[in-house]
Amino acid sequence: MTIPDYQSLMLPVLRLAAECETRVSDAAERIADDLHLTPEERDVLLPSERQRVLHNRSHWAKFYMSKAGLIGSPARGRFVATDRGKALLDMAPERIDVPLLMREPEFREFYRNEGGPTESDATIAKSLDTVSSRTTPEEQIDSAHASLTAALGDELLQRILANSPAFFEQLIVDLLVAMGYGGSHKDAAAQLRRSGDGGVDGIVNEDRLGLDRIYVQAKRYAPGNPVSRPDVNGFVGSLVGLGATKGVFVTTSTFSQPARDYVRHLTQRVILIDGQELADLMIEHGVGVRGYRTVEFKRLDEDFFGEE
């Protein structure tokens, strides 16, 4: 089943807090049991891969209710329902969410400050209908990062296609060196430009000593024009003729499914890198891109406040 959003988790988290003191991790496990989540669902991570989704949403459910005075923290890392929280449960609410928490003056003040000092109650109420009101801050950050990265990837491929074949060749050199292959730019360029071996565009060393070699084929195809199996078959035939065991086929487009199926059963190790993966690798290794903003997010240091 789908993991509930953090607002849907508020009621079950408060019920557990009303039973006894608990921790977010323990509450998340209890909720997972009640929802009959599978081990795979329990272990689903945020896109950042630094925290489990259920744990993250349970934390924010607890955090927002604490700002409304429904939950208190009697000890480090532990929380419990306050008298106000228990009184709310006695009213048997069907759901606890941000609009309900907005009834509490301290939560309205917190929410206004979170959105900005100039935000009015009317603007806050309108914001509750947005998608962001159903996602945690970490999920909003990850979603924004994914959107920006996807847009950057598309722009990279467009710029590659707008440049010359020689530019594409140099780009492959830069990327391979950035990934740790080819030794140096000079060595990698010399190897890559030593083309003309049938369906092979170039050769690079797998390591700085040149103990093994990787053969490269590059096709600068427009979107909608996938690399077919015959293209890959020709490259593999060249590898066989050269006695090579490793090859990388790079394209700005995509590979047809028959082409992908073909390389899975080869004796040679052939890696297919399509346009999307090419852009991802360029972003990951800083080729053709540069950082323009770094934002550091801090978390509470529990060890700092520990007195045991």
Tell me about this structure.
It is elongated, with a radius of gyration of 27 Å. It is an alpha/beta fold. The chain is built from 15 helices and six strands. Helix 1 (10-19) crosses helix 2 (24-34), helix 9 (137-162) packs across helix 14 (275-284) and helix 10 packs across helix 11 (185-192). It has a four-stranded mixed sheet with strand order 3-4-5-6, sandwiched between helices. A two-stranded antiparallel sheet has the order 1-2. It is 50% helix and 10% strand. The protein starts with 9 loop residues before the first helix and ends with a helix.
Task: List strands and helices in order, with pairings.
Blueprint: H1 10-19, H2 24-34, H3 39-42, H4 53-67, E1 71-75, E2 78-81, H5 83-90, H6 98-101, H7 105-115, H8 121-127, H9 137-162, H10 165-178, H11 185-192, E3 202-205, E4 213-219, H12 229-242, E5 246-251, H13 257-263, E6 269-273, H14 275-284, H15 302-305
Parallel strand pairs: 4-5, 5-6
Antiparallel strand pairs: 1-2, 3-4
Strand order of the largest sheet: 3-4-5-6
Largest sheet: 4 strands, mixed
Q: Average pLDDT across residues?
A: 84
Q: Which sequence of SSEs, written as H and E, runs from N to C?
A: HHHHEEHHHHHHHEEHEHEHH
Helical fraction: 40-55%
Taken as a percent bin, the fraction of beta residues is: 5-15%
Q: What's the total helix number?
A: 15
Which structural class fits the helix and strand makeup? alpha/beta
Give the total of beta strands: 6
Low-pLDDT ranges: none
Radius of gyration: 27 Å
User: Quick one: overall form?
Assistant: elongated
Distance between the termini: 41 Å
